[in-house]
Amino acid sequence: MNWWDANKFEFPSMAVAARDYLPIPASEVDVERLFNTGRDILGIRRFGMSGETLKTLMMLKDGIRCREADLK
């Protein structure tokens, strides 16, 4: 970010784009973790579960995980 700030007059459009997009953290791991959690909850035999039920179970599981992390 420092380089783009120092060279913003030479590359004004790229500097704006860099300021907008470089601070965004890579989130591939979080997305993969989300899908793995959904797969673990659904399992092979639960594909008839509604999306709303799956969402509720995933939120409950995340709440439990957060609470356990706070206790440590």
Structural summary, described in words:
- The chain is an all-alpha fold and about 70 residues long.
- The protein has one domain.
- It has helices at about 1-5, 10-20, 30-40, 50-70.
- It is elongated and about 60 Å long.
- About 0% of the residues are buried.
List the helices and strands and how they pair.
Blueprint: H1 2-6, H2 12-21, H3 28-42, H4 51-71
Overall domain count = 1
Question: Roughly how many Å apart are the termini?
Answer: 36 Å
Helix content: over 70%
Strand percentage, roughly?
Answer: under 5%
Calculate the mean pLDDT score and round it: 78
Count of extended strands: 0
Estimate the global geometry from the Cα principal axes.
elongated
Contiguous runs where pLDDT drops below 50 for at least 5 residues: none
From the helix content, strand content and strand pairing, which structural class follows? Answer: mainly alpha
The H/E string reads HHHH
Sheet with most strands: none
Total of helices: 4
The Cα radius of gyration reads: 20 Å
Which features does this protein show?
72 residues, elongated, mainly alpha, 4 helices
Brief overview:
With 72 residues, the chain is mostly helical.
